[in-house]
Amino acid sequence: MANEIKKVVLAYSGGLDTSIILKWLQETYNCEVVTFTADLGQGEELEPARKKAEMFGIKDIRIEDLREEFVRDFVFPMFRANTVYEGQYLLGTSIARPLIAKRLVEIAQETGADAISHGATGKGNDQVRFELTANALDPSIKVIAPWREWDLRSRTQLLAYAEANQIPIAKDKRGEAPFSVDANLLHTSSEGMVLEDPAVPAPDYVAQRTVDPEKAPNEPEIITIGYEKGDPVSVNGVKLSPAALLTKLNELGGKHGVGRLDLVENRFVGMKSRGLYETPGGAILLVAHRGIESITLDRGEAHLKDELMPKYAELIYNGFWFSPEREMLQALIDKSQEYVSGEVTVKLYKGSASVIARSSANSLYSMDLVTFEEGAVAYDHKDAAGFIRLNGLRLKTWAARNKKANS
């Protein structure tokens, strides 16, 4: 395939691994490389990536601020479904990959590139997410995954390659890194090394986005989140853009130690992995969205959403964001959000985010129906007798059969 590749678009962070990949692509494929660096709110200065790419002679260097698109078009649609993978994980890494891969494909089409390339290893889920997205958006595009092609199998070999090719190595990269980090505006993910043994508690220094809940403020903080058609639009009455809103909630949640998760998950590629995830803003949004849905969704809508959510979460985790089945589910989810508007009041306190009030002009909650006081109500207690009798009919038939059979 090497002779067929004239130009490649590389997902480039400017770190050691992708810098090695950049040089390796130039040597192995003798091709032009376009670098693409996405700002998804990882909190790092991205201009050094430009300078490093220039050092390699790269002429076409793309650095794009995708924070608003990330939250608006990927995070918020996912949160409309109250999405959690395996009951806990808010999919912070999973939901970022389809956006990065989408832009890789688009840039390849814009520049006439033959292939895209990523730095995901052969053991992880990210390789699947990048490549399934590419398959869905441009079936003709080629994908180069260096970790599945080259013979660099150890950290020592990587460092030796970097030194041989005059690739700058940061001082902290020469020693053994205590753990690896992936971050974006939704979460911080820490994995590997000191975190690999699930029997050993994570060291305190791993957490970066949240304070220790035990050291969080001793006074709770009350916040109000406004919703329009399933999406959060304001915090404490102040209208905010999607990225600004999530940034604000990250700040509030992080201060109170909200959103920490020590998880052993089942990877799509077949192994288990342990990671420490911090999703302060996302954890707040999950409980707040459920709070506003509790008064605006009919029981049938709410229960159907909960039944479908695990499948929806699995599709995202496994890399099928751009798939017909995910889009079908999204249409159903979005339909359910037409009347999910109002305000939710949330209390933040020592690692927890809990709903304490909710209101909506579209509320289905009827004080007249639930009150214990006498009043003009549309509910006749006597109706319950027939309701129970009909629902109990099959149970009586079942019990009578069993009694007869065992007598």
Please sum up the structure shown.
The protein is α/β, with parallel strands linked by helices and 407 residues long. It contains 13 helices and 14 strands. It has three domains: 2-71 and 91-175, Rossmann fold (3-Layer(aba) Sandwich); 181-297 and 339-359, Argininosuccinate synthetase, chain A, domain 2, CATH 3.90.1260; 377-405, no CATH class.
Molecular structure report:
The chain is an alpha/beta fold. It folds into 3 domains: 2-71 and 91-175, 3-Layer(aba) Sandwich (Rossmann fold); 181-297 and 339-359, Argininosuccinate synthetase, chain A, domain 2 (Alpha-Beta Complex), CATH 3.90.1260.10; 377-405, no CATH class. The chain has helices at residues 16-29, 47-55, 67-79, 97-111, 126-137, 155-164, 171-174, 242-255, 280-296, 299-317, 324-336, 367-370, 383-405; strands at residues 7-11, 32-39, 61-65, 115-117, 142-144, 180-183, 188-191, 221-228, 231-235, 238-239, 260-266, 272-278, 342-349, 352-359. The strands form 3 sheets. Strands 3-2-1-4-5 form a 5-stranded parallel β-sheet, sandwiched between helices. A 5-stranded antiparallel β-sheet has the order 10-9-8-13-14, with helices on one face. α8 packs across α9. It is elongated and about 85 Å long. 35% of the residues are buried.
